[in-house]
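Listing S7. Sequence submitted for prediction.
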Amino acid sequence: MATKSKKSNISSSSKKQGTSAPRPSPKSSSQKSGTSAVHSTISSSSSSKTSQKRGTSAATSSPATNFTPTTTHTTDDGMSLEEQRRSRLAALDSRWSAVAGTVALTALFNKLNDVTSSVDSLDNQIADVRQKGYRFGAGWEDRAAKLQQRWPQQRNEARQLLEQEKSMLQRTANSVQNQLNRARSNYGLMDTAESSLQRLERDISNVESRLYNLFNDIEDEAYALECEIEQADFLIDSLNSASFELQPNEEGVAVCKAQWVSDKEEPEGLLYLTDQRIIFERHEEVATKKFLFVTTEKELIQELMWASPVGAITELEAEDKKTFLFAHQELLILSFAERTRELPGDVTLKLQDATNEEWTALIRQVKTGQVEAERLGVAQQGEQAAAQVTEGKEIPTKCPSCGAKLPPVYKGMTSVECNYCGTVISL
């Protein structure tokens, strides 16, 4: 009964309050449970975050944790120490690959064989140009014979030393290779391997220089003789196809490619020197047809531009000229006593495959007659005949035109020029 009375009081109180404010609708059981779930989730999340913070704090402060931070060492160039070691090892491997190919001294052995071939072929080369009619270079046969006598002994000595040095270098190279292999697994050995590689490189360089000097002189002499023979061969072939004919008893001495730069057209061609004259022949291809500035057709122009007796050369000057970007030009300047429509008083030639010093000496030898000492027939007459050629004699001694004293006349000259009046006297 007491219970009922209490419920009745509550109900009565509620009714009184309901007159002043609307009563909220009752919530369903599902809404209540959802609200409880949200509160539960928020509570759980807060609890989790709190737990994480506490865990992090514990992990940081607790000395018993197993966490070990990773540290990367870098160099000034941004490479890690491991990358730097690998890069250095790769560089050593590259150097080793280059050195390994030279340990066998293959280049020196090949050079030895090349010199042997050059020396052995000299006889045939000389015989070929003699058969074509070249009469100068009287000492060629003797020079070739001396080279062929000296070379066998020097070749054998050089080969023996090469084999000895090759064996020693190969032993050293094997040691270096082993050190490099160990350095791949133990970077601490790289300094030792690099020092050994440097010594091997230095040893190979020293061996190559020392052994090359054993036959360098023979090689230079053989090469110089080969060049002279090749120039003579080019001279004979050029004369055979020239646009002019040699005079009776006239023989070619030398030829080179040249350009007549003092002429307004600056033609290119060949400069010939014989035992009697100096000759310039134009020999060049010129465009005969173009399409849009592109040459479609060419024509070879070959004609005699001028010729003069060597004795008519009054002045001879050589000049080395540097042009744009330090290009080097060999200029040969000639002054002639005779002036014709084809030949002016002065001629400037740019030599293209010869030096002006060489040609200055050759022209003077022909002018003085000293070139006759190089003629094959004179040399075969013996040393006394050659000495008479080089000593010379003054015949005639006076100019028939002005009575002035003439320059010395050497054997083999076909004319002599008076330095005072320019008269050329046939001999």
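Caption to Listing S7: primary sequence and predicted structure tokens for the chain studied. The first strand starts at residue 252 and ends at 260. The chain has three domains: 81-240, 252-368, 385-427.
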